[in-house]
Amino acid sequence: MSTPPPGVDPGPAPDAVPVCPRHPDRVSYVRCQRCGRPACPECQRQAAVGVHCVDCVRASSRTAPVARTAFGAPLRGGPPVVTMTLVGLSVASFLLQLLLGRGGDNPWTQSLLFVPAWGAAEPWRFLTAAFLHSTGRGLLLHIGFNMYALWIFGPGLEQMLGRWRFLALYLVAAVGGSVAFTLLATPGIGTSWTAGVVGASGAVFGLFGAMFVLLRRLGRDVRGMVALLLVNAALPFVVGGIAWEAHLGGFVVGLGLGAAFAYAPKERRAQLGVVAVAGTLAVLVAAVAVRYATVNPLLLL
């Protein structure tokens, strides 16, 4: 090896060995097409042209526009998490009902079922009854229909509305079904005021109502929905023991929330969605409060 004589420019120094910024112990001659930094195999992400590093991919994802549905919900891949959770909770609750006994003294059923006469003192029952189902004759038909309908309509609505609006729709419609049953029951006459009500039918009919409105908003054919609604409207006159009042209440709530979600201005969808849910709950609470205020206290729990 020779050295240049004094006063002679030695020229540029040889380049340093390129290493991955995130893993300095790894040599990498592959560079990110965006930032130009070396990227080891672990930090490389295949792009349409060349390779990007993980840092550039993350930065791009934060600034890239989010793909959304016609009703403003972010498009998500993967399973319908909310629908699956609701089905799982309902099935688990039903199995617990069977495990603890199918009689009227079942502690799980007794603690969660809805009875109009008990609602003023134990308001949680307006919602919890939607996670119980009949364990009597034809037990599998009751939970089977509700869970099948939830599984058929739930994923589509969850995709269109997003998770929180779909969950709010389901839960508020369940409450609406119990409220309607209370408003249409007759205290002191017959058994409706002291009858126990269970089932997710009110919530499911809320999904029917919302789906009807959303399909209309999209200009889709709703004749199939109309036929389904007519068949279910006729069932209480053919099969006994069906709380049609809860079906009606859930359906009306579904129509209202569905309209609010579907026709909200694009720039205010999130805010109006919250207002619609809170406003619907306020109306339901006010209606049932007025109802209980007119009932003889001796007829309440």
List the helices and strands and how they pair.
Layout: E1 44-46, E2 51-53, H1 54-63, H2 81-99, H3 107-112, H4 125-128, H5 139-161, H6 163-184, H7 201-217, H8 223-238, H9 244-263, H10 269-293
Radius of gyration: 30 Å
How many domain modules? 2
- Determine the structural class based on helices, strands and strand pairing: mainly alpha
Largest sheet: 2 strands, antiparallel
User: Could you tell me the number of beta strands?
Assistant: 2
Output mean pLDDT: 89
Tally of individual helices = 10
CATH superfamily of the largest domain: Rhomboid-like
Low-confidence stretches: none
Strand content: under 5%
Helix content: 40-55%
Protein name: Protease
Keywords: Hydrolase, Membrane, Protease, Transmembrane, Transmembrane helix
GO molecular function: serine-type endopeptidase activity
Membrane topology: Multi-pass membrane protein
Q: Any overview of this molecule?
A:
One of its GO terms (cellular component) is membrane. It holds the Pfam family Rhomboid. One of its GO terms (molecular function) is serine-type endopeptidase activity. Belongs to the peptidase S54 family. This protein is mainly α and 301 residues long. Helix content is 54%, strand content 2%. It has a two-stranded antiparallel sheet. A hairpin with a 4-residue loop joins strand 1 (44-46) and strand 2. The mean pLDDT is 89.
